[in-house]
Amino acid sequence: MKLQLLLGTVLFSAFTVNAQVSSINENFDNFTSGNSTFPQSGWSAVVAPMVTGTAPFPVPPRMIVTTGSDKAVQSYSGTNATDSSYLISPQIQTPSGTKTLSFKTTLVSPSPGPGTIQIGVASSTSDMSTFVPVGNPINVTTIGTIQNESIPIPAVAGSYLVFKFTPSSQHVAVQIDDVVYDTSSSLSVRDNHPSAGEIRFAVNADQTALEFIFKTAPKNIRIYSAVGEKVSEGKLKGRQFDINSLPSGVYFLNFETAEGKTISSKFVKK
């Protein structure tokens, strides 16, 4: 009887490890701190190689989980000024184009220069030749300034979400936190009386603009194609955002509210 119970436990554990997740909500606070802690909690890393012969001595790149109660993950370039490191999510269900990846990022002191983050998907946790980029690279340029980023994930073949960190020089450290991969918010214009902080929008009858209803105007607006490429960016003119030049199709929209919350949604231009 005990043997049967043990076997059932082993089989269940194996199933859990290989299960694909439909969403991710990770703040890394329960991770073990350090620079050699991956893989853990389904996350893994592929770190850039150490460059030998650098002065005064070579320092290896690292993927670091920070200390303290509010933990985050940092990609540190060491003395390798050019090669990329990768942080890989738990295995996900094949993206269907209905979800958005959002996260916070900043440049960490004393980084001497900026870095970039390229979001993508991959079919392996160790072979980054399978990496397929999604959207445009994100420039992380200012120490201590938190950037709220949101990237629509298109319907592409891939088993893992990947953060590709590329430095501009030695000793660059770029940090991410509060990673959320979930269904985009569903926003629409339903009435003319939004509550405080609420923002609604719809495509106008002429299919030339997005019309917004709000009490406090949103900040910078970004629009992405169905394959994750940024196709438009700017601010409202009055209560409208021009989409006249966009061809018919499905688009993803994200913007930041006055309170600093990043909102993502989807619309169809006919």
UniProtKB/TrEMBL annotation:
Cited Gene3D superfamilies: 2.60.120.200
Signal peptide range in chain numbering: 1-19
Keywords annotated in UniProt: Signal
Positions of the Secretion system C-terminal sorting domain: 218-268
InterPro entries the UniProt entry points to: Secre_tail (IPR026444)
Matches recorded under Pfam families: Por_Secre_tail
NCBIfam families: choice_anch_J, Por_Secre_tail
Protein name per its UniProtKB record: T9SS type A sorting domain-containing protein
Organism: Chryseobacterium gallinarum
